[in-house]
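Cross-posting from the modeling subforum.

Setting up a comparison between two proteins and wanted a second pair of eyes on the formatting. Protein 1 (sequence, then structure tokens):
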Amino acid sequence: MFRLWAKIFTDNRMISDTCVIDESVDTRTHKVFRTLEQACNEFDLGKPIWLDKNIADFKRLSKTRFHQDNFIESISFDYLEIQVIEED
């Protein structure tokens, strides 16, 4: 099982979160992209753009933050944080 926790923060306070589960037999990369897309749909957000910093953080920590510069449209929060909390 693969679980991704997505959280929205404003002023260093979590204002919304969701946990997305993917039980498919697929690569880790595909699971990350699929669960991130599901979380963004739940938050009614466009998908963020992965910058080099996000990729490096995610490879090292299984966690990254998406700020305004990762989104095409304007966002009403400070950042979206994603973290892998379980993977098989």
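Protein 2 (same layout):
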Amino acid sequence: MKIVKWEQLPPEMQTDEVRKYYDILKKKRVSLFFKRAFDIVASLIMLVLLFPVFLILAIAIKFDSKGPVFYRQIRITQYNKKFRIFKFRSMVQNADKGSQVTVSGDARITRVGRVVRKCRLDELCQLIDVLRGKMTFVGTRPEVPKYTEHYTPEMMATLLLPAGVTSLASIYYKDEALLLDAAQDTDEVYLEQILPAKMHYNLKAIKEFSFWGDIKIMFMTVFAVLGKEYKGDHDDVTVKREQAQEETTV
């Protein structure tokens, strides 16, 4: 995985705020090389081993509701480039015509989709995007253009690397839908509260980037899916999650 020359970055990324993160990554050439090598080898092996799971999910999705097996949506990845992400469809067809954030009781989610989303199986096919180089195993989750247009100059630094399947922000905000349940305007709450908090971890990950740090985050993701709770160092994360959980149990 290479970092292009500063002059080759898109104009919107050639700012002082991005430069400090760019300089950090330029010194991590060895870690970046192993990061991409790991992405290629691991994604290829996992795609072969998980083919039976892919087949079962595809059949279940087709029997459960009308529509394609895969959900292809425009997202943003490295250098602010657009790509069509692969996800197993967990919502009814044309669900993205409404809000592009999802709450826990969202009526657009299908029966199979609820199981798929809970276990994060909808993201398994992103292994295809990792192999293609559009994504990486660990990195900032890919947002839709609607939200990246609201990035601050510093947030643009997260686009120095490919979008990721998982991240620290994904782990700490795995119950993101619960935080949005009580919101009257989910897009507004996401942009003004959740996105800035998640970016705290995304930017921190770039500052502290290392290949072995990525491996650690991948193991944390597995444990998080299995039910382990992780507490972040950002004040809002644990408090909001606990408040949301209390409200849903009342």
